[in-house]
Fold these 3 entries.
Entry 1:
Amino acid sequence: MALRIQYVGHRNSLFSLEEDAFTHDHKPAGVTNDTILSSMPKGVLGGSVAGLKGDLLVGSCERADRPLGLFINNAAGNPFENTPAVASEKGPFVHCLGACQVDVYETNDDDGAGAALEYEAGDLLYSSANGLLTKEAGGGQVAVGVVVKAPSASDPWLGLLLLV
């Protein structure tokens, strides 16, 4: 559940987190994903998609009006630090042409078949219903980024350039 920032673009924390940002489950029943461990905490994860619903940040595109970028920290902040998100109800995110790599993204399609997703440089990335990056576009979705480095068996990080 990490985000490697290579070029930061812009960082922002203007919006407050929705209550679900602390309780959202990124591995719901029936969803196959090789990058999400069952031991991962609930709530937004570093590298998951930050979306805007009214004036609140949400971690699931099902409730978001539009994507804003990628969360920098998980809902409780950075490990071994105080818990800034809990204390401030803010969720820092990166956006505006930042270049980064993530190790949490959808590895299977969500149409019920569960076919493995293969990422290639140039693929557009969207937010999945779980708030993770995917190459599957839902109806009328805005692209969050474009793949610049595809994950592989020897290097599972997905590299992207943010478009939002």
Entry 2:
Amino acid sequence: MIVYTKSYFAEDLTGIIDLQKANLPANLTPEEIAKEGFVTVVHSVEDLKRMNAIEQSVIAKNDGKIIAYLIAMTPESKDDIPVLIPMFANFNTIKLHNKALSAYNYIVVGQVCVAKGFRGQGILDNCYAEYKKQFKRKYDFAITEIATKNLRSINAHKRIGFTEVCRYKVPHNEEWSIVIWEW
């Protein structure tokens, strides 16, 4: 039975790390990357503990094992993960409804992942429904960025209701799409 909840326990954070590691490009074949998607950022348990102290991530468990996660991150953590500093810098350049993004109270989806074998079963949709339930009253919207070459994630986020507000490139010409899910 799949349970959707928040990351309350230390073993939840290590479960997120284990699932993350299995889905990093270094641990996938080019075919898996193209078909299944991938995660980019490597977090430590300490990173997750710091973020979890502000907002707890949403997780899905099957028989006690983490099978999906949506990391909850706020602007308060913008300097904690160096690879994400450009994302937050780009957020500062975006306007939404003629207002600077910084004028809003938003939550960042720090990373999402569904375990192989559980994909295509609506688990991501259910995780996002839980994310919205947990954070809708406190935040104006959720925002994240997705590598444009990660087509599975781009399409999944469109299906959920995210809309693209900006694209940008980083060194080595990698392109990112910033998407917002307005509640």
Entry 3:
Amino acid sequence: MTSYNPAVAKLEMPSRIKKLPIDERGFPVPKFVAWIDGKPDFRTAEASWVSKSHRLRLCWQCGEPLGRHLAFAIGPMCAINRVSSETPSHLECAKFAVQACPFLTQPRRPRNSYDLPEQHVEPGGVMIQRNPGVTLIWVTRSYTPFRAAGGVLFRIGEPEQVLWYARGRAATREEVMTSMDAGLPQLKAIAEEQGPEAVAELMKEIERGFALLPA
């Protein structure tokens, strides 16, 4: 039996995560991951899991029923527009993910888009192709699906708690600001294409988002 990778073995692992299969590197395989030719491809979400997890109210990470509190692991730009392409997780599952996922814990690690499987489908809306270096766990009690170009996205409700992470630990305000400053020009460019009203709305969203930064 494959043992856990040292990078995750040292972490506090939720009992729900311990029930998941382990890949050949020793990483737990989240429920959303697609299996291609008998192996998990962490870059690709199982096509049916988005709708199934939403419909049955199941955790994006572990696949077990959710409770009242819903945790979204999102990038800084999603804190601005309050939109996620993934359904929510248990808080403890989201915390584990932001400490265990190599992409989320290594800011310089690029997205690996080489030789993506045919089953791979990009999420709806406009995706900013970068490693933000910072992840936000947004805890709320509500979210709403809506149609977007290319698929379905989820508008997340008012936050009851926000936890910023970088490199697998609590992020500093400077780290969050650096990530936001790098991503905002792309959001502004999209809004400018849509017109003055979109730009004005984005400015309000930016002000609202910056109020959530760590002290």
